[in-house]
Every structure is written in structure tokens, then in C-alpha cells.
Amino acid sequence: MRSIDLDSLDIFRTVVQEGGVLRAASKLNRVQSNVTTRIKQLEQRLGRPLFRKQGRGLVLSPEGELLLSYTQRLFRLADEAENELKSGRAVGVFRIGSLESTAGSRLAPLLSRFHRQHPGVVVELVTGTTGALLQRVAHFEIEAAFVSEPFTPGALASRKVFEEELVLITGTDVDGVRRASDLAGLTLIAFASGCSYRKRVEDWLGASAVLPARTLEFASYQAMIACVAAGTGFAIVPRSLLATLKSSQDVRQHELPARVRRNHTHLVWNGEPSTSLQRLMEML
After folding, report:
1. How many beta carbons lie within 10 A of that of residue 117, not counting itself?
2. What is the dihedral of CA 26, 29, 32, 38, to 10 degrees?
3. What structural domains and CATH numbers belong to the chain?
4. Is the dihedral of CA 74, 76, 80, 83 positive or negative?
5. What's 91-139 look like in SS3?
6. Which residue among 14, 34, 82, 180 is the one 20 to 30 A from 43 at the CA level?
7. What is the pLDDT of residues 35-84, one digit of tens each?
8. Where do runs of H (alpha helix) occur along the chain?
9. How far is CA 215 from CA 9, 109, 181, 201, 270, in A?
10. Is 268 helix (H, G, I), strand (E, B) or coil?
11. Measured between alpha carbons, how far is 14 from 42 in angstroms, rounded to an integer?
12. Nearest CA to 267 among 124, 134, 146?
């Protein structure tokens, strides 16, 4: 179905406002025949007469009256859209992604402040692993995402935003873990493949030729920590998350080597940042 262009509606509106084709043509800097042709084309497209002759002038038909009301609304909306965009205010839907740990320990106060300052923005937050989030940003399914090292940004832009300390957790019955070999024969509890924290611990274990007895995959940290607390195995989590979930008493924490425990969360995005993303980056 072919849409009506605003240019044709502008000519129609001007004919009504000026009270005739001749004055409308003068106002629009067009020849009279061009205005007449555009009105006829509009009537043909709609299949309805928009004007009726009355003496030597024109008056709107009932269909013309209806079209005029829609035309006025459309131009008001067009003016509002232009004014909003030129104002620099953040508006509309803002889709972002995050690791579950970052969403749980870092984003609540940030997004609450963002909402107070930019009430015209509807924030849609999705969680996932670093690998999954990178793909969604690359395919423009979400505008930006908080992801963790290690990752390869490719064509995406990125910047460091949070520093995290990772900690190894086990059941309270496990003695101190000082090296990767102390975990030999135990079960790794982690997110699905694509999780950057899982890759970090697997690389650490692999460097010492240690393989977990098995790997259990979970979709939430609450489930992972509960499983570790029950003595099922070990996991690697941000220390800030344990504090947020108040789970530090349920598990035993073991310090990791510096190269493993020091980690950064990055914000990644694709292309030119929108106004909403620019405002979020200013807060960071």
C-alpha cells in the first residue's frame, strides 16, 4: 500500500489555508497547474473528492474535512519529533544488555539515576553471557552491553567502566585452595559456554593441565552459589556479587592469582551512540 507523502499533504493544507489554488501556488512558489495536478493526484490516490466548487471558489468535501484533521495532526507530530530531536533530550526505547553479575551488583543505582534524569526513556535490560551479548550488539538487537574480559570486540567500540575482583568459591568443607591442582577431580559450576568468567577459570586450570571432573551449567548466580554451598563443586564469581547477595557466609572464598582475579567490565556498542547511550556514558 502506497503511503501519502507529507509534501502532498502540505500542498493540500496550504490550498485550504489560502482559500484557493492560485493563492496557495503563490505561497508555495509553485505554478498553479502544478498545485492543481498534485491535488488531483491526491484525490485519485484516495479515491475520494477533497473539494467541491462553490460559486467561483472551492470548499472542502466531508472527506476533505476528515483528511484536513489528520493532516494537521501529522504536521503537529512532525514538528514535535523535530523539536525533540533538536533538543538533545534522551527519549524512546533504550535496549541494553548486561552480565547477570553486573546487573545485580552495579546497575540498579545507575539505572535508577538514569530514569530520574531521563524520564522520557524506556530502558529494556536483557542479561546473558559475554559471547551472547557481543553477538546481539553486533546484530543491532541491543544498542550496547556490559561485558567482561576476556573478549574480542571486533568492530565494536568499547570502554572500561568497572573493575571487578574475582574470587573462587567452594563449599565450607573445602580446605584452602592455593593452586589450580587443588581443584583436580572437583566439579566446575558455571554459566554456559560464552561466559568470560568461565573461560578465565578454564584457562587457569588448563595452564596447570587440570580438568574438572565435570561441568554443571546454570542460568543464574543464585542457583550456582546455592549449588556450591551444598558442596557440589566450585565456581568463580565477582566478590561484589557475593556482597550484594549476602552469600559470603554460605561458601568459602579462596583468593585467585592476580592475573585471574583482576578483571574489568567493559561497555561495548555498535556505531554512533544514540542520545540515550551518550547520557548513560556520561554517568559512567
Report:
1. 12
2. -120
3. 6-87 (1.10.10.10), 92-163+264-283 (3.40.190.10), 164-263 (3.40.190.10)
4. positive
5. CEEEEEEECHHHHHHHHHHHHHHHHHHCCCEEEEEEECCHHHHHHHHHC
6. 82
7. 899 989 998 988 889 888 877 778 888 998 899 888 988 888 887 777 76
8. 6-18, 21-28, 32-46, 62-87, 100-102, 108-117, 130-138, 196-207, 221-229, 239-245, 258-261, 275-283
9. 64, 34, 16, 12, 33
10. strand
11. 14
12. 146
Residue carrying the nine cell digits 561495548: 268
* Dihedral sign computed on CA atoms, order 98, 165, 221, 243: negative
Q: Which three cell numbers stand for residue 120?
A: 522520557
C-alpha cell at 284: 559512567
d(CA 105, CA 148): 14
Task: Report residue 32 as a C-alpha cell.
Answer: 498553479
